[in-house]
Amino acid sequence: MNHHSTGGQPDDAIDIDALLQGLDDIFAANEAPSKAEPYLLNALRIARHADDDAAELSILNELMGFYRSQGRHDDNAPVIERALMLTERMHLEGSEAWLSTLINAATSQRAAGNVDDSERLYLLALKSSDRIFEGNDRRLAALHNNLSMLYSSMGRYSEAEHQLDQALNILEQASVNPAEDIDVASSHSNLALLLLNTPSRTQESLDHAAKALEIYHQGGLETRAHFAAALAAYAQVLAHAGRPADSLPYYERALETIALHYGPNSEYYRTTEANLESVRALIPSPDQAHEAAQDVPAHPDAKDGPRRRIPHDGARPIQHGGKGSDGGGREGSRSITGMELSRAYWERYGKSLLAEGYPDYQGRIAAGLIGHGSECYGFDDAHSRDHDFGPGFCLWLSHEDFSRIGTRLQQDYEALPQEFLGFGPRETSVRARGSGRRVGVFEIGDFFRSITGYEQAPPQDHHAEWLMLDEATLAAATNGEIFADPFGRLSRTRQAFKLMPEDVRLALISKRLGMISQSGQYNLPRMLTRGDGAAAWLCIEQFTSAVSSLVFLLNTPIRAGYLPYYKWSFAALRRLGSRMGTRLPHLFGPLESLMRIASAACFGGHGTAEGEAGSEPAARQAIATIEAVCSEIVTALRQEGLSDSDETFLEWQRPYIEAHIHSADPCLHSI
């Protein structure tokens, strides 16, 4: 793989996270037909100019999906060919990136009607998946689902059903709770639609479609975007079963869900609306249609049952209490993330607030969610909702605009509905109030100063200031999502904090190598020999932290971001490791193993579940793990062109790293 590793950050470097966020913004604004292609083609040009194969492959996969969604199969053909060629050139065969590209290419060939090529690629992916995925890996289930759709399109319904059965079995085995699992629900919906091809199995089709909706209801998943597909599938099955009047409210609820997540101008909305009108035409009596639209089964099945009214206001309240409720009266099993809730709240209320109340400023105000909080990193779950959770988003203004309308806009923001999609009012901790508040209206410079101490990133030649900025601080300033930024100032300010000077990055890599060596290779064996378990434990903690930081620094902040707050370090390492083209992608595994045996290694294992009572076997394993990690680091340094030394005692690698530092600034060099 070609890449730049020295000489400073190129002006036209590709930040994949920022690229994908920009693409999301285009789709969210329903501007994909006119803006997505030039956006991706420009990014592709930059990646090729930079000889960045990993970035190019990511962009090609996105472009492949876009052309597929537009039905532009002739334009997609060279994109598919180029992507597959890149996987060969990068020697990715057998990797997750290679498998993802195979599946994407197969799906594109399926959409183009090239069923033979599609089947060949799917089967190649399936054959190779055993080496990449474990038996109950959800991605393997997705592959079986894709192959099922291909066979269904070819009229090979028996094979399609077999693939779907395999997918469902994998998902049920992998799931912690299949009765509340959205992927299990999707498989039931797919089976329901497939079985419509066999008239004698209509009852089974109804059962599967009803099971999907039951899972969404049981799991509190009805605000998720995929709920629309389950509703539409159940509606289609009802219409096919000769019950068109019963299908109407499900189609209507599907349209509400689509409008919320994709917009009323999307192709998805128009297709579902056309299906609804087709069903309405099958109903002979308008009175009958009106009566059917009043009620929807609470737990739909093949039989008529009790019905309840679903309000059609686009923000249906979620039932509280009962199974899955937490002590705060909020449904603890809900799967919607804080970021999803924030974006939906912005779409529902934020856009209209600006359009109706501030039309002259609408093109100058940015919106999104950035900063402190697990939801800004995408790591939140049901346990995160005990504080600083609920409907909310950020609005960012320039200094001039904030001085004119900031106070009034904040008042109007606070007047928005406090409850949304069954959540709220927002739970706010003491430290997230006043100047520390996490949502609302902000002046751009004040917002970043509240996080970093700087209104904007330090100049590139202010090395000492960059070195004093903690990585977790920089992570908080550069995380999250921007929903809209028509003026562009917020995006430029945030991006500048990702552009860590190359000399600073190299200096930090050298410092991390020193700490890795000192804590893990030198001090840990000494502390173990002395029998100082507490000191040995701290050595392992320091080693783990330094390695975690090093992984992010080697992947560069512009691409990987920064290592976040300590409690999210491993979540961030796992996510980074799953991305295409990541350097040292699997080190989180050995680090987790090291931490698991730390008790036995440092304190002898007494009172733990480590197995042996003595510390010597665990200590040997800990030291061996550390040496293996250090060896992998040396390989990565050599691959990056930062060192040509085989020395695995990492302190001796530091001069090779610092030889690439151009500045003579003493703060960048070790003594």
TrEMBL record:
Alphabetical list of PANTHER family matching this protein: NEPHROCYSTIN-3, TETRATRICOPEPTIDE REPEAT PROTEIN (AFU_ORTHOLOGUE AFUA_6G03870)
Compositionally biased tracts (Basic and acidic residues): 288-315
Residues in DUF4037 domain copies: 466-568
Coiled coil feature spans: none
Residues covered by region (Disordered): 287-334
First and last residue of the signal peptide: none
Name listed for the protein in its UniProt record: Tetratricopeptide TPR_2 repeat protein
Xref: Gene3D superfamilies: Tetratricopeptide repeat domain
Keyword set, alphabetical order: Repeat, TPR repeat
Organism this protein belongs to: Bifidobacterium psychraerophilum
Keyword presence, Nucleotidyltransferase: no
InterPro entries named in the record: DUF4037 (IPR025117), TPR-like_helical_dom_sf (IPR011990), TPR_rpt (IPR019734)
Presence of the UniProt keyword Repeat in the record: yes
Residue spans of the TPR repeats: 141-174
Cross-referenced PROSITE patterns: TPR (PS50005)
